[in-house]
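Renewal narrative, Specific Aim 1. Our central claim is that a sequence can be written position by position from structural information alone. The example that follows is taken directly from our test logs and has not been curated for this report. It begins with the structure tokens describing the chain, in the order in which they were read.
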């Protein structure tokens, strides 16, 4: 199995985050979690990211050719979100020392990195391409058509040669 086309990261990015918890730092079909589970988690996290992007009217998925910096951030967030969720399979690694500061907890920090990306998207502060769907129904110009197909004329009109406060000396 491979990751979906709309997924940003691959299993090697997750291995870089939590690979020390598995044999040879490599996910296989015999490890816990298995390679299939890692790829399914990556797909699920990327689907959530893309849903948030679409809700904020960004183009989803983020194309690396169009937006390389936001795409790189999406790769990191995808890997961090999947790694944080996969740490639930390792209760000792996920919880850590009860006396430990929660900010230093490995799972908490990975999920916080993922949530930080989602917060930026929700606040529409991501410098990425916006979808053209947000412009539907936006009319430019002075004449528009209403739902019956009739042309609505503008309320105020001015001829090309009319200027405010201009007076003519000629009498009609």
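The sequence written for that structure reads:
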């Amino acid at each position: 199995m491979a990751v979906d086309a709309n997924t940003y990261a691959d299993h090697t990015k997750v291995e870089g985050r939590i690979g020390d918890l598995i044999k040879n730092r490599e996910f296989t079909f015999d490890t816990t979690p298995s390679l299939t589970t890692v790829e399914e988690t990556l797909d699920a996290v990327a689907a959530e990211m893309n849903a948030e992007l679409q809700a904020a009217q960004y183009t989803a998925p983020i194309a690396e050719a169009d937006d390389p910096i936001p795409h790189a951030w999406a790769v990191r967030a995808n890997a961090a979100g999947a790694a944080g969720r996969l740490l639930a399979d390792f209760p000792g690694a996920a919880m850590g020392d009860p006396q430990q500061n929660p900010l230093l907890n490995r799972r908490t920090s990975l999920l916080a990195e993922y949530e930080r990306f989602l917060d930026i998207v929700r606040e529409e502060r991501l410098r990425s391409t916006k979808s053209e769907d947000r412009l539907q129904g936006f009319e430019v110009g002075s004449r528009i058509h209403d739902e019956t197909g009739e042309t609505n004329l503008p309320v105020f009109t001015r001829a090309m040669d009319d200027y405010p406060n201009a007076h003519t000396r000629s009498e009609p």
